[in-house]
Design a protein that fits this description.
Number of strands: 14
Radius of gyration: 22 Å
Strand order of the largest sheet: 1-4-5-13-14
Structural class: alpha+beta
Strand content: 15-25%
Oligomer: single chain
Helix content: 40-55%
Number of helices: 17
Length: about 450
């Protein structure tokens, strides 16, 4: 079907009236939009119709496929082994990719990781990597293949060739209030990941105050949709539901999170960071065929950290992609912020709750994030937590240190942080970090099968 034979208005009306679009109609529509043959105002109307009425499984697969094949789908068949990547739906203090990628690569599984930047309250892997002086995330696809073949690992940003229709559609969704749609989110995520040339995918789907999906039920629905799409394309796909009711680890901000990642690769990371790293790594090692089970994969991941292989792999990829390896060896030599401001507790009690979204927004105010895509990030800005959920505190005790080079929004950041942390007389009930595992066969309480 050509775009000339496609009546865009009739398709909008069809979806508006909650009728099913055929795969051919979706493919032609997305292809035409990517070629500027459909104007933004019509695509905006279609996105709203999709947002309101949803997409069924067949439509979701067609939508993902159309965006996937709008650009180049990489063939990594010349590189030995099953290629496995991981995707997180985003969170505060979520630096897991920085640890997980070298851990898995050190265990012999190729990890072709194409990541994104932070926007709003969540950080981006690319911004964290670029806080390492000299680190180049803008490799072309030939260099991408070369680095992956050499190190079993490459860490870059989305290129112009990868799912260009998704890039345009996401920008349009962002300004038409159509972002929070499970099928549209799933199609966006999976089109980019499938274009990388992967054989399998592990998903970290978060819920809670600091997550994109606040309700657990919505996170489960998204995880199921992502798994179904991945499996429909012949890629083994596992999802884990994780709790984002408080920040991950103790450090929030770009270089601060690299610093905490280095601690983790030395085996000295916070418990929640290490738990999530080992489980997700174990699943990737299992899907990559280097372990007979997730449990065995976890043991191999722990071994790669304890024997130093994972840290050496991280150092190697920093060097390969132009980064200053002396900062990996001696992170304490990194430039310091001009201001380190203490936030003190106003009451005695226990940390009863932490609104991770507000903590993320406080870090943004300090310079660690962007209000718009054009904003520059200050790599040293951010927050170092001293207390987390369930910790006992006394009035006047330090809750956190705010790092910044700009006093303009320091008071705003402190106000946001103080409101985010609730201190009460009661000890809170703390949910497990990992909630369940989701695969093609359903939802499983056992994380490691």
């Amino acid at each position: 079907m050509s775009v000339h034979k496609l009546n865009i208005v009739s398709l909008i009306r069809k979806k508006r009236d909650n009728e099913e679009l055929s795969p051919d109609e979706i493919k032609t529509l997305i292809s035409a939009y990517a070629k500027d043959q459909v104007p933004d105002y019509q695509m905006s109307a279609m996105l709203m119709a999709m947002f309101i009425n949803g997409l069924n499984d067949e439509e979701s697969a067609a939508f993902t496929s159309a965006m996937l094949y709008s650009g180049e789908v990489l063939d990594l068949g010349s590189i030995p082994g099953l290629k496995v990547d991981k995707h997180s739906t985003g969170g505060v203090g979520d630096k897991i990719s920085l640890l997980l990628a070298p851990v898995v690569a050190a265990c012999g599984v190729p990890v072709p990781m194409i990541s994104g930047r932070g926007l709003g309250h969540t950080g981006g892997t690319l911004d964290k990597l670029e806080s390492i002086t000299g680190f180049n995330v803008n490799l072309d696809l030939d260099r991408y293949r070369e680095v992956l073949a050499k190190h079993n690992l490459v860490l870059i940003g989305q290129t112009e060739e990868i799912a260009p229709a998704d890039k345009r559609l996401y920008a349009l969704r962002d300004v038409t209030a159509t972002v929070e749609s499970i099928p549209l989110i799933a199609g966006s995520i999976m089109s980019k990941k499938l274009a990388e040339g992967i054989d399998a995918l592990v998903l970290d789907v978060k819920y809670g105050s600091g997550a994109f999906m606040r309700e657990k039920s919505d996170a489960i629905a998204l995880a199921q949709k992502l798994v179904k799409i991945g499996e429909s394309f012949g890629k083994r796909t596992l999802a884990f539901l994780t709790n984002m009711e408080q920040p991950l680890g103790y450090k929030i901000g770009n270089w601060l999170e690299v610093e905490e990642s280095i601690d983790g690769l030395r085996g000295k990371g916070p418990d929640d960071i290490m738990e999530l790293t080992y489980v997700l790594s174990g699943a990737m090692i299992y899907l990559g065929g280097k372990a007979a089970s997730i449990s065995e994969g976890i043991k191999l991941a722990e071994q790669a950290v304890s024997n130093g292989d994972a840290l050496r792999k991280f150092r190697d990829i920093v060097e390969e992609q132009g980064g200053d390896t002396s900062l990996i060896d001696h992170p304490e030599k990194y430039k310091k912020p001009e201001i380190v401001h203490e936030v003190k507790a106003r009451d005695d009690g226990y940390v009863f709750s932490i609104d991770a979204y507000s903590v993320g927004m406080a870090a943004l105010e300090l310079g660690a994030g962007r209000r718009s895509k054009e904003d520059r990030i200050d790599p040293v800005s951010g927050i170092v937590l001293e207390k987390k959920l369930g910790d006992q505190v006394k009035k006047g005790e330090t809750l956190a240190f705010l790092h910044t080079n700009n006093t303009t929004y320091l008071n705003t950041a402190e106000t946001l942080f103080q409101k985010a942390v609730v201190i009460a007389k009661d000890i809170p009930k703390i949910e497990p970090l990992l909630n369940c595992r989701i695969d093609k066969d359903g939802i499983h309480e056992s994380i490691t099968q």
